[in-house]
Structure formats: C-alpha cells, structure tokens
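## retry 2 of 3
previous attempt timed out at serialization; input unchanged, resubmitting
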Amino acid sequence: MLILTTFEEDDYVVAALPAGASGFIGKGAEPDDIVRAVLSVHEGGALLSPVATRALIEKYVRTTGAADVRGPVSLDALTEREREVLLHVARGRSNDEIAAQLYISPHTAKTHVKNTMLKLGAHDRAQLVIAAYESGLLAPGR
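## retry succeeded, writing output
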C-alpha cells in the first residue's frame, strides 16, 4: 500500500507503517516521483519520501532515551557496497536513485537492499533507516 498524503508528519508515518504501508509520499511530490513510488511498491519494494524519512528519524531521535537504546547496531556483516546502499536508503533514496548514484542496475540495487535487510534483521526500509542511525553510519543533520 502506498500512502499519498498532504501531511508527511511523523505521527502519520508511524501510524501508516504498522497499518501495512510500504510507501509514503507527499502530494507535493513531482509526478515522476509519484510514478516511481507506485512502481516501487507494486514491485514489492518500499519507499519513504525524504520528508517522511526525516520526520520518522526526528521522531525516533526525540523519543529514544538512553534507557531505550539497545546498544549500537553492528554493520560488520555488511559488505562495503551494502553499507553504501544502507546510507542511500537512510537518506530516503529509491532503488532507482541508488542505482543511478552507484552506477548499478535497479535490480542489483534492490538485491543489495534485500541482502542488507536480511543481514540486519530489518523488516522494511524504515528499520534500515533506524539501523543506519543506531550504528552511527548516519547522524541527524549529516
């Protein structure tokens, strides 16, 4: 399910993901971005717009206290390419955008995302974003 919304706020994103949303994009997105989002979700992928990703991260950072932290996520199981892909996912990029940035095919990008999810025990891209922040691979504002 792809959510097309006026509001890309953290509460909406957080509520939509457990309800089964695989994608979340604002109505202000460019038509090409909306088409890519629909295709991505249709192909079994997941997509959060950069604004929705940022809202989710900000909510996570605001609500995660020291007592809630499970300890740093280890990225040791990932290859260097998988770390690159994880960084792109954490920045809200789609598989097609990752492919273009890394000069690989969209299918290869999708495979790297799936392998990264398997190795980190993530169920969706949102959990990959969280893993990128918990591991220190990415920090708010960077």
